[in-house]
Amino acid sequence: MGMSLTISPNPADRMNKVLPQFTAQLPDIIRRNYGRWVDRKFHGNGIIEHISETGDRIFTVKVGLPPNSRLSTETLKKLLDIADNYGLKVIRGTRAMNLEFITDSLDKALKIKEEVEKLGFPVGGWGGALWSVMSCTAYLTCTTAVVDAPSITQVLYNHLKPYFTGEIELPAKLKIGVSGCPNQCAGGIAVDISIVGHYGQAPKPDPERIKFCIPTKAEALKTAIPQIAAVCPVGAIKVFGKPDGSVGIEVDDKKCIACGRCKNVCDYLDWDPNKIGVAIFVGGKASNTGTGPRLGYKVIPWLPVNPPEYKEVVAAVRKIIDIWRSEAKPGERLGDYVDRIGVDEFMKKLGVPVTRHNRMTPQQWRYGLRQFFSQA
Questions:
Q1: C-beta separation of 240 from 293 below 8 A
Q2: Considering the entire predicted model, what is its pTM?
């Protein structure tokens, strides 16, 4: 704030950048208590009171946003007015696609909650609750999207809102991610429930247009592997020279895992739209607490996507949550619950047959900080 940066055309000068100090942009009460916060209290599901060793207090109000945090300019102005009138004139957009207001009294925090709920936004997402449903942009900006992640995210929020607001309690925090394709820009499978769009089949090269993605002459294959084949993680794409000196391409249906990596580098592959669906992973997390970070198990290899209700996806997510909610211990994350009862037992409860596409080997996830401290 109040700082101007001069961009020099001289590359040598760029090694001596003067970066803005983010602490100068913090409200005074936060800046003077930086590193001194010693305790916190929950006031309902969406308000946290932070207590400093100096005796100062601030309150954070957590608000759920639409999929991919997409807000109109008009709506954003209304939210900023609420922050100006009842908060510390700041708002914070989180990586989990929520919005946090900061204020200096509980009365103001409750007023913020009241005002944002009037605009249609839920307040919650802390403690034993649904913390967020994260979404990639999918068709909004992405060229490799298989399914429309934002619309799936909105439907899930519509059904799972009571878990976010705290009307229905959960054993521990729950995070859900929806990715439009296996690239998983929505956060990967390090969330409790991850829904990943995929093609569900091997692609078929377009006979004519695929020529734009492979060399014109077989002689070129002696010096380099075409990118369309090099990106395949399982070696399912074979590019070969023909007797007439031209180049051919084949996709091995038995090897292909329908990850879509080839589509990242070549648009001229045809996919059967009737086989497009999602896979569901369970049990991931990015936290260093408890047993530490871990990846999820692929429990459902394929489900159809049928907009606008996405009934199959909603039913599967609901069932996963219901099993965990009814049987988990207090504070037990979904992945820790699955490990405690065993992956095979969880699959039985879920009613999903085990095939080569979702046969999981139990893993020992012991990377949390507490494990290292307890061994010291």
A1: no
A2: 0.84
174 SS3 class:
strand
- How many CB atoms neighbour CB 188 within 10 A? 18
Helix axes 311-327 and 149-165, enclosed angle (nearest 10): 30
Give the integer Cα–Cα distance in Å for 319 and 316: 5
Buried b (16+ CB within 10 A) or exposed e, 307-328: eeebeebbebbeebbebbbeeb
Tell me the C-alpha distance between 303 and 322, whole Å: 19
Residue 282: closest CA among 199, 341, 232: 341
pLDDT digits (tens, 9 = 90+) for 89-127: 989 999 889 999 999 999 999 999 999 999 999 999 988
Burial of 2 per CB tally in 10 Å (0-12, 13-18, 19+) = exposed
Considering only CA atoms, which of 367, 315, 365, 303 is closest in space to residue 335?
365
Question: What is the largest distance, in Å, between two alpha-carbon atoms of the chain?
Answer: 83
